[in-house]
Amino acid sequence: MLIDRLDHVVLTVRDLARTCDFYQRVLGFEVITFGAGRTGLRFGSQKLNLHQYGQEFEPKAQHPTPGSVDLCFITRTPLAQVRRELGEKGIPIEVGPVEKVGAIGTLLSVYVRDPDHNLIEISNYTRLDETPCPACLVARHDRGWLVELLRQRCVLLLRRRTNANTSANTPDLPSCASRRRLGPGQASRRRPTAGQSVQHIQ
User: Is 56 among the residues known to form the active site?
Assistant: First the structure.
């Protein structure tokens, strides 16, 4: 068996309307209706399914309890902007910014509470662990790694294009070519810098 990713998580909540308002207004989730009048909160390619406490759908967890969940959401929004937006919306930050260990690297995170007091971590990746080449990620359908790898490369290219100072936290991500082990007589072609001609590196 090979598990690819999480598709959805079920939250048991005391007030559907308050929960939908929080996740839509504060975190930008999309409120959706599916099945026989069920409610969900969609973000990216995942969603949260909501159960009304005491009226849960079957099958359900053995002990469904509001406020028992600890979730971490990755955002493309810089954490400084996240903090400003939370302040503007009257959402207190319980902890942070603090550095944490994510699934594929180092996170910078802040923590807030939703209406049921579930702990919600909102994070930026600041550094990735050693990364397999993109072709390997595609081959094994590792979308989490691949999306974050591509996102960080885009950020790096944009900063270089605008002549901004590259943040020390932005990882210098290796390409497939730089990871390829060359045998005798083989050559790797590198992109020339301004004023240089293309040459083969033995």
Answer: no
